[in-house]
Design a protein that fits this description.
This protein has 14 helices and 14 strands. It is α/β, with parallel strands linked by helices. The strands form two sheets. Strands 6-7-9-10-11-12-13-14 form an eight-stranded mixed barrel, surrounded by four helices. A five-stranded parallel beta sheet has the order 2-1-3-4-5, sandwiched between helices. Helix 3 packs parallel to helix 4 and helix 7 packs parallel to helix 9. It is globular. The protein starts with 8 loop residues before the first strand and ends in an 18-residue tail after the last strand.
């Protein structure tokens, strides 16, 4: 499997906002540009799971300098090449950068737009030429497994659906949640393989439960959505697993800027045309994009737990913003699901103000397939 590289993503790191704006102008239209003003912000972007193909960083920055930041990144994300920019010629710096920080090239500031684009094209081309094949997933002895968290109808308390959550058995006996391995799978080019593995597991579950099985929601990575041929592979995989499009709900993360890319939106439209329901996950968190409600072929919205967490009985007006959000989604004909429902008060209040589906510890914790049942609250 290969990732469609038509739109490479460059993470630019510089403490000077004016220079970051200049880099966006020079690279925008050719690359998708993420930006950070320091090492901690750059690391948060990487930890969010967004696809980063190359890091372009200044060296002299307050706090953690460029080479040290890239050295830290190399330990956690060894496959991402980097270009270091510096306004000073320093042989010792160059040796340290190349030997310890995965720096493929050092360029001296200032640099013209054409020269910068040529440097990036050279490094990305060289990286693709030597990039290792994605990790093969053993269809029998793989360490991944699924658990399922119930979602209930707010009005009746009956099970509406389950969300499938992937976990991984580590060699030392630990169990890792998706946050611990999905970023590596996206960077390594095998995230779509994990998605198809989830589909196969759900197919086996459906074969055992037949018509009694509720619908299952699975998460689609935006990296998969911009992968060449993913929609055809996914649709075929669903059929081969013995499933119908109506058996699944596809969740896409609202906090990922990749959803603004034309390739991702085209993939979602194709999936919607094939009969899949699509929900926008984490709505209202961080990178909120209300335009997505109009631009994407959605059937539902999952409101982020950070919004639901503010819904407490001791705070007057704590539901005002949430009610506006629900009203807006309702006017667009979108089903609304609240994530992170942890108390009876939250569940009752959400039902009264028009939220349709509830998910969280109050409804039920994630369980293995043997414990799946119709739950009421």
């Amino acid at each position: 499997m290969t990732i469609d590289r038509r739109v490479d993503t460059v993470l630019c790191v510089d403490d000077d906002p004016a220079l970051l704006n200049a880099l966006r102008r020079m690279l925008g239209g050719i690359y998708y540009v993420e930006s950070a003003t320091d090492a901690s912000q750059a690391m948060r972007i990487l930890e969010s799971g967004r696809r980063i193909d190359l890091i372009l960083s200044d060296h002299r920055m307050p706090g953690v300098q460029g080479v040290e930041m890239l050295r830290q990144i190399r330990k956690r994300y060894p496959g991402i090449p980097a270009i270091l920019m510096s306004g000073h010629t320093d042989v010792a710096l160059a040796i340290d950068a190349v030997n310890s920080a995965n720096v493929a090239k050092i360029i001296q500031k200032p640099v013209e737009a054409d020269a910068l684009r040529a440097h990036l094209a050279e490094v990305l081309g060289r990286h693709l030429a030597v990039e290792e094949a994605p990790v093969a997933i053993d269809p029998v002895g793989h360490p991944y497994f699924m658990i399922y968290q119930p979602k209930a109808c707010a009005r009746t308390g009956e099970i509406h659906s389950y969300e499938a959550l992937m976990r991984k058995h580590e060699a030392d006996g630990r169990v890792t949640s998706a946050d611990g391995f999905i970023p590596q799978a996206e960077a390594g080019g095998y995230i779509s393989d994990l998605t198809m593995l989830a589909v196969q597991e759900i197919g086996r579950l459906a074969a055992r439960n037949g018509t009694d099985m509720p619908r299952i929601a699975i998460n689609l990575s935006p990296v998969s959505l911009i992968s060449n041929g993913f929609t055809a592979r996914f649709t075929q995989g669903v059929l081969e697993a013995g499933l119908k499009s109506s058996d699944l709900i596809l969740e896409v993360t609202e906090s990922s800027a990749h959803l603004t890319l034309p390739a991702a939106q085209s993939a979602l439209r194709a999936l919607s045309a094939s009969g899949f329901e699509i929900e926008l996950d984490d709505f209202g968190a961080g990178y909120s994009n209300f335009g997505a409600l109009l631009d994407l072929p959605l059937t539902g919205v999952k409101i982020d737990k950070s919004i639901i967490g503010r819904l407490v009985c001791s705070e007057a007006g704590s539901s005002d913003a949430l009610e506006l959000m629900l009203t807006m989604c309702g006017s667009l004909g979108l089903r609304t699901t609240a994530e992170g429902v942890e108390t009876r008060y939250q569940a009752d209040r959400l039902g009264r103000i028009g939220c349709q589906v509830l998910q969280g510890y109050y409804i039920g914790r994630a369980c293995n397939e043997n414990a799946m049942c119709t739950r009421r609250h």
